[in-house]
Write a structure and sequence with these properties.
By secondary structure, this protein is mostly helical. Helix content is about 65%, strand content about 0%.
């Protein structure tokens, strides 16, 4: 998945590109702001400010959008249960996944799957 699907302009900052690349590769794992800031060698608050300034989104928004987009692919192309999809894309429970999915898409994962 290309970062251009998420951002309106190319990202030039080294740290943010590194964070995005790491997230694209590891979105299925538990990822926290603290861990990402440590990975980059940055203060957590500075990382949050830098990410928002460079991308127009918070890191959490980006991570949720990525996970939901990946889950939509699984809903469309597999017979996995909604719980399995939630776990596969990095959510630790189905309720949190379903709420995030509905917030971003306006529908539930079940309705999305049935529609396709």
């Amino acid at each position: 998945m290309d970062t251009y699907n998420f951002f309106h302009k190319p990202i030039c900052n080294f740290h943010i590109n590194k964070a995005i690349a790491y997230t694209l590769k590891n979105y299925t794992e538990p990822l926290t702001l603290e861990e990402m800031a440590d990975y980059l060698g940055l203060n957590k608050c500075y990382f949050c400010q830098l990410f928002k300034r460079e991308t127009g989104k918070t890191y959490s928004q980006f991570l949720n959008e990525l996970r939901i987009e990946k889950s939509k692919e699984l809903l469309e192309n597999t017979n996995l249960s909604i719980l399995d999809i939630a776990l596969t894309v990095g959510y630790n429970n189905q309720n949190h996944y379903s709420m995030a999915f509905k917030k971003l898409t306006g529908t539930t994962p079940k309705n999305y799957k049935n529609r396709n």
